[in-house]
What does this fold into?
Amino acid sequence: QQQVKQSPQSLIVQKGGISIINCAYENTAFDYFPWYQQFPGKGPALLIAIRPDVSEKKEGRFTISFNKSAKQFSLHIMDSQPGDSATYFCAASDNAGNMLTFGGGTRLMVKP
Amino acid sequence: DTEVTQTPKHLVMGMTNKKSLKCEQHMGHRAMYWYKQKAKKPPELMFVYSYEKLSINESVPSRFSPECPNSSLLNLHLHALQPEDSALYLCASSRQWGNYGYTFGSGTRLTVV
It folds into this structure.
């Protein structure tokens, strides 16, 4: 059972455009939602994270939008740059000691 | 120091070999994890150590043997692996087991021949 569903699997965006990646979860006990960025040959790096008591969090060009009632959250990358080309994973966990559950990943390519 | 360091970066081993992967962190994190990642897939949890004790084993074959000698070190001992075990092996740590931000290492790219 895939507890965190991520879409799209791949995304091509022009430089300067907005990249949007969506995730949906099933477990209502989840209370921590991070996004990870992974470059080829490297481990995932924490990009930004949100808790369900806020609907939006912004850090630079990266914004998480969170809809608790719909059990959905999304990552928006504004002014996308070629250096943003990477695989992005959403994830979720709860404070009962459950493990970090990853979405399937989105391969983003930003064209110059 | 805000890093998780993994060695070696690359490893090629035969199916009869014994090798070990090493992971080190000096952030004072008390939870450490081993993940396996196949190409174009998300990381899959293998083991969790919390306060140096094995807390989770996600039904990993016994040819993978984890060890946590102290709060900063995590090893993964490999023996009699199969070609399908070839993958990127990631170590991660977090302040506590559960919902805190994980810091991942760069991984060891393992090839079993």
Observations:
- Chain B has a mean pLDDT of 93.
- The first strand of chain B starts at residue 4 and ends at 7.
